[in-house]
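Researcher: Re-running this chain for the archive, since the previous output was lost when a drive failed. Same request as before.
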Amino acid sequence: MKVKTILVSQPEPKIENSPYFDLIEKQKVKIDFRPFIHVEGVSGKDVRAQKVDLNKYTAIILTSRNSVDHYFRIAEELRFKVPDTMKYFCLSEAVAYYLQKYVVYRKRKIYVGKRTFSELAPLIKKYKNEKFLLPTSDKLKPEVPQVLNELKVDWKEATFYKTVISDLSDLRDVYYDILVFFSPSGIQSLLENFPDFKQNETRIAVFGNTTVKAATEVGLRVDIQAPTPETPSMTMALEKYIKEVNNKK
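Model: Regenerated structure tokens:
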């Protein structure tokens, strides 16, 4: 079956040179973007109920742009003035760069990991006398508390935002050749929105081992997988697959 239509379960990229747009042009396919999940902030009252006093912490661990947004949102809601001495430990350069939305970058103590939480751990260990706050979602990767506990640092996790399933009812009678997923929550959203979903000829593309596991556990057939040594990105995996099936004689 040739591929003509793809649904990516994420927001449309804001950058003009996204590899998805190259894929549309080169392979002459239609790609739609639709988040299957979205984030909703919890209230300052809910944060207080978790016994979190923002004054107590000297360092913040930021694992995503969402954690940046919701930390500063809660600080504002609770009328907490973030001190200039606050240390920020950012999972990646992208997160650290995003922090500039709220702080004057060059005047702050910002420590940046490479990509994974384990790579951020040595920086946290260097400052083990700080009191760390981890503002996070209700879907925290188990690796994060595990690494922090192993470091034996003084830290607290607090839910500042939640991952919520989006309403996709308008897609009920719309069919795509490929559905693309990036998280177990995306798979959960598909089945909650469409409990009678039958895969049939629809190809499922997934990114990451946890997403593969979530898909196979509910009986979905995974046809396209990334990252692999040959296709480290989802767009590369899609392009390879499309070339193979669309060019078959």
